[in-house]
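Why do we bother with a discrete structure alphabet at all? Because it lets us treat a fold like text: something you can write down, compare, and reason about line by line. To make this less abstract, here is a complete entry for ATP-binding protein. Read it the way you would read a sentence in a foreign language you are learning: slowly, and without expecting to understand everything at once.
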Amino acid sequence: MPGIARTTLRVVLRSHGLDELLDRAELLVSELITNAVCHTGGPASLVLRWTHPAPRISVRDTDPNP
């Protein structure tokens, strides 16, 4: 799952001309997705939103506990 999230992120950031953010954002997403899956045991989703002037990246999981 982290691989799919990284690939999706890379495509979206490149389409917005944000290549300079790729390495840091990819590491961030990989860590967040891996932690969500490892600690909740359930699925996780990647949410990418454009909040000018920068993208907003978040990960959601199904665990009801914070």
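What the structure line is telling us, in plain words: The mean pLDDT is 87. DSSP finds two helices and two strands in the chain.
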